[in-house]
Design a protein that fits this description.
295 residues; alpha+beta; Arc Repressor Mutant, subunit A; SH3 type barrels; five-stranded antiparallel sheet; three-stranded antiparallel sheet; 8 helices; globular
């Protein structure tokens, strides 16, 4: 949620054009990261005129005048010690996401900020997804259509044909899959995009959608706490590291996503018996969650 502006005479943030809000958001992020911003950076990043860049800076200064001042020696607008975010909702999370996008020089901040911190990011090996598979799946979700395709599961030697009505794309932290209704299995299932072996072909209008997916419409609360064998001071550090409130972190998930999440967070059955040095958090409500962990 964005903060209220300091000037009640100006229109609310939601009334600003989308492209203006985007420019102001990156302007604010640059100000946070490098402590300064100028019109040259705005013109080079957005392809706008110097006059428009000056208008953006002037508008931001009117919306939050205490956040920046013009330094005539540096010829930059610089951050003040009274800075309060206006557009960046979760400062750390959003800035880290932008830094990650900027790692290869293709993100939104490279040409804005005067100086970026050094950043290195480890990524899991990317699974290749053929656009000729991804795009028909996306279009079928939008149109509510069935797809006919060849799918290679690890249960069989050869690919087999499936008729699928997809309703949601899911990234589970490592791979992309699609959730949808299988005509062959007569149930909603998950299918990895990387295992689709033929270009999906339209097979008519679907009949079962997300609203019919009972498991998808079921929400599960996942509660995580520091490992009970950690000393109190170390448990407090872990709780702070994971942003826990009252020593607990709670996440609401759709039931089919629970197995992926427990695997991603490395929590579940037997986690309390593991060495707390290597398993710092554990699943607190196993009886409620583990019935949904199907693999």
């Amino acid at each position: 949620m964005t903060q209220a502006t300091d000037n009640p005479d100006l229109p609310p943030l939601d009334a600003l054009r989308w492209e203006v809000r985007q420019r102001l958001t990156l302007l604010e992020t640059s100000l946070l990261l490098s402590g300064r911003v100028n019109t040259v950076a705005l013109t080079s990043r957005f392809g706008i005129s110097r006059a428009q860049a000056s208008k953006d800076l002037a508008l931001y200064q009117k919306l939050r005048p205490r956040n920046l001042v013009y330094d005539r020696f540096l010829k930059n607008y610089v951050i003040t010690d009274r800075f309060e975010p206006l557009l960046v909702r979760d400062t750390s999370a959003e800035i880290l996401a932008l830094l990650r996008a900027d790692l290869h020089g293709e993100g939104p901040l490279i040409s804005l900020a005067a100086g970026m911190p050094a950043v290195e990011v480890l990524e899991p090996v990317a699974r290749r997804i053929d656009p000729q598979i991804l795009l028909p799946v996306c279009r079928a979700i939008y149109a509510g259509e069935k797809l006919r395709l060849s799918y290679q599961s690890l249960d069989g030697d050869e690919p087999h044909e499936i008729v699928l009505t997809p309703h949601t794309l899911v990234y589970n932290g490592f791979r992309w899959h699609v959730r949808g209704y299988s005509e062959r299995k007569e149930q909603f299932r998950d299918y990895l995009l990387a295992r689709m072996r033929s270009t999906p072909a339209a097979a008519g209008l679907g009949e079962r959608f997300a609203a019919d997916d009972t498991l998808w419409q079921t929400w599960v609360t996942v509660r995580m706490v520091p490992h009970p064998k950690l000393p109190p001071n170390q448990a407090a550090v872990v709780a702070d590291d994971f942003g826990m409130t009252g020593g607990e972190l709670t996440v609401e998930l759709r039931a089919p996503l629970v197995p992926y999440y427990t695997r991603l967070m490395r929590i579940g059955g037997g986690d309390t018996e593991m060495d707390p040095r290597f398993r710092q958090i554990v699943l607190a409500n196993k009886d409620e969650v583990l019935p949904f962990v199907t693999f």
